[in-house]
Amino acid sequence: MNLRSHCYLALAIRLGFILFGLVQDYFAEVGYTDIDYKVFTDAARHVLNGKSPFERHTYRYSPIIAYLLIPNIFTFNLFGKIFFSICDVLVIDLVYKILKLDGFTGSQCKFYSFFWLYNPLSIIISTRGNADSLAALLVLSTLLLFKEKKIFLCGILHGLSIHLRFYPIVFSLALYFAIVDSHSNLIVRSIYPNRKRLLFVLSSLFTFGIITYLFFYLYGTRYVDESLLYHLKRVDIRHNYSVYFYLQYLSYEHGLSLIYKLVMITPQIVLLLILSCYYGNYNDISFCEMTLAFVLVAFNSVLTCQYFIWYLCFLPVCLPYINCKQMELVLVGNFWIVSQVAWLLPAYLLEFKSKDTYFYIWLQGLVFFWANMVVLSTCIRNYKKKTKIS
Question: Could you count the other beta carbons within 10 Å of the beta carbon of residue 206?
Answer without folding.
Answer: 13
